[in-house]
Amino acid sequence: MGTEVQRLVAFSSDPRGGNPAGVVLDPSGLAEPEMLRIAADVGYSETAFVFPRSPREYDIRYYSPKAEVPFCGHATIATAVALAERDGTGRIELHTRSGPVTVDTQVDRTGRHTATLTSVATSIAAVEPAALAEALAALGWTDTDLDPNLPPRVAYGGAHHLVLALSTRDTLATLSYDFDRLGKLMSEQDWTTLQLIWRAGPDVFHARNPFPPGGVVEDPATGAAAAAFGGYLKHLGLISAPAAFRIHQGDDLGRPSVLDVEVSAADDRVRVTGTAARIEP
């Protein structure tokens, strides 16, 4: 019997939206090459493999079609919903390569399962000028396309993401980039995705996330980048914590996704909430 792979979209209640993820709840006996092969066969940006430690506590590994990644937010949401459907709602403790991640699952007012992940501690770092220039060149942009109120930084919330904020929605909507050139730079810099942002209002953002290191042109919903972006806003003093905001992602791909983000005043962890829906065979 082959390994059972569940398929769900995260950050959408409609399987035509959100970001698809594979979830393997019984990966016993699978070695790394086999997990990578399964992820490549599934073809989604990430597939999660969940190894039980004790009731409601798990080790979790994430694989893109090309490599293992340290943390993946949308696959975490999909995994938590799959576990909640099987075992009931409540708190789940996940041990990722980036550190412990707590996920709270619940049923919302419409009867849908939702999950809220609490990230590892977030941080930000400056971008090397040469790396920033190369990223802009690969994207076909110049620094005049950027929003001066949201400066470029590398943000971390379990994985590293270059944050670039744009001054217009049209620039974000017409994204077209050099896949190989950007992928090479991101691998060199250890950036998992780019968090390309346009601020629609004080608490509403639109995002796109190129992911060439994983062999994927673009993620339609990226929970890890949402957590990192929450930390980015807090560490730069661009929001006053506690605060909440919403990210719309995937609209330009025809896979609309909604990520709700909460930034705490107590610590540097960020909470990201979303629902998930099963993809029918």
Strand content: 35-45%
Named CATH architecture of the largest domain:
Roll
Question: Remind me, CATH topology of the largest domain?
Answer: Diaminopimelate Epimerase, Chain A, domain 1
Helix content: 10-25%
Regions with little confidence, pLDDT below 50 for 5+ residues: none
Total of helices: 6
Instruction: Report the principal-axis shape.
Output: globular
The H-and-E topology, N to C, reads as EEHEEEHEEEEHEEHHEEEHEEE
Assign the CATH superfamily of the largest domain.
Answer: Diaminopimelate Epimerase, Chain A, domain 1
Radius of gyration, rounded? Answer: 18 Å
CATH class of the largest domain: Alpha Beta
Can you give me a brief rundown of this structure?
The chain has 281 residues and is α+β, with helices and mostly antiparallel strands. It has 2 domains: 6-119, Diaminopimelate Epimerase, Chain A, domain 1 (Roll), CATH 3.10.310; 123-274, Diaminopimelate Epimerase, Chain A, domain 1, CATH 3.10.310.
